[in-house]
């Protein structure tokens, strides 16, 4: 079974917990990923979510995901969040490595919140939302962890991959993948078992 993600707006402190948007809480050993724009400038990737692995352990009955530590997902989503002036728009198809990143740390004892702001000092992020988890079908159209890609075009191209994170469009966030699409981060089963998240692939399909 796959694991669907459900979101809830909240004023709670989500530091160190599973959350969507906001700022990532990471060990000092991990650097915030960026996309090189030119020789002198790099653009921070959009922080998508962090998953506190023990929060979903009871749903991951096959033990596909780690059951301790934290997963972090980043991607070049500014354009798809309604910023037509975004310098990084990876477009359709498979994204190259600089445009997305998946990080994992087993040790989350001491976390540092990576705050990014615009030139005027306002937060350079969407407001953080709490995440809850529920079981869902392996090929559902939910925003979810695990299973197979919902879109047949992605499923056929990555037939031997697990859908590590599938992201559907969301009107509440203004998140649109062109006309109608989904973003999938995918990993081969052996790499998932060995926790080699650096081999994750990312693919955007839109109709």
Secondary structure topology:
Blueprint: E1 2-9, E2 19-20, E3 25-26, E4 34-38, E5 41-44, E6 46-52, E7 70-75, E8 93-94, E9 100-105, E10 112-113, E11 129-136, E12 144-145, H1 152-157, E13 162-168, E14 181-187, H2 189-193, E15 201-206
Antiparallel strand pairs: 1-11, 1-12, 2-6, 2-11, 3-10, 4-5, 6-7, 7-9, 8-15, 12-13, 13-14, 14-15
- What Rg do the Cα atoms give? 16 Å
- Oligomer state equals single chain
Largest sheet: 11 strands, antiparallel
Total helical segments? 2
- Topology order in helix (H) and strand (E) letters: EEEEEEEEEEEEHEEHE
Global shape: globular
> Which strand-content bin applies to the residues?
35-45%
Distance between the termini: 27 Å
Name the structural class: mainly beta
Helix % is under 10%
- Total beta strand runs: 15
Describe this structure in words.
- With 207 residues, the chain is mainly beta.
- Helices cover 5% and strands 36% of the residues.
- It is built from two helices and 15 strands.
- It has helices spanning 152-157, 189-193, and strands at 2-9, 19-20, 25-26, 34-38, 41-44, 46-52, 70-75, 93-94, 100-105, 112-113, 129-136, 144-145, 162-168, 181-187, 201-206.
- Strands 8-15-14-13-12-1-11-2-6-7-9 form an eleven-stranded antiparallel beta sheet. Strands 3-10 form a two-stranded antiparallel ribbon. Strands 4-5 form a two-stranded antiparallel ribbon.
- β4 (34-38) and β5 form a beta hairpin.
- The chain is globular.
- The two termini are 27 Å apart.
């Amino acid at each position: 079974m796959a694991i669907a993600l459900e979101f809830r707006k909240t004023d709670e402190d989500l530091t160190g917990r599973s959350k969507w948007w906001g700022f990532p809480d990471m060990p000092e050993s991990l650097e915030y990923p960026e996309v090189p724009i030119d020789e002198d400038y790099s653009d921070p990737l959009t922080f998508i979510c962090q998953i506190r692995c023990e929060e979903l352990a009871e749903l991951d009955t096959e033990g596909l995901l780690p059951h301790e530590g934290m997963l972090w997902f980043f991607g070049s989503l500014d354009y798809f969040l309604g910023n037509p002036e975004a310098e990084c728009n990876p477009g359709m198809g498979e994204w190259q490595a600089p445009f997305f990143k998946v990080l994992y740390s087993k040790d989350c004892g001491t976390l540092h919140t990576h705050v990014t702001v615009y030139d005027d000092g306002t937060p350079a992020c969407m407001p953080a939302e709490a995440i809850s988890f529920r079981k869902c079908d392996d090929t559902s159209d939910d925003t979810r962890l695990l299973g197979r890609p919902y879109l047949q075009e992605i499923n056929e191209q990555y037939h031997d991959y697990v859908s590590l994170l599938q992201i559907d469009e969301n009107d509440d966030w203004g998140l649109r993948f062109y006309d109608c699409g989904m973003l999938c981060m995918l990993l081969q089963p052996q790499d998932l078992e060995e926790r080699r998240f650096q081999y994750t692939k990312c693919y955007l399909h839109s109709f």
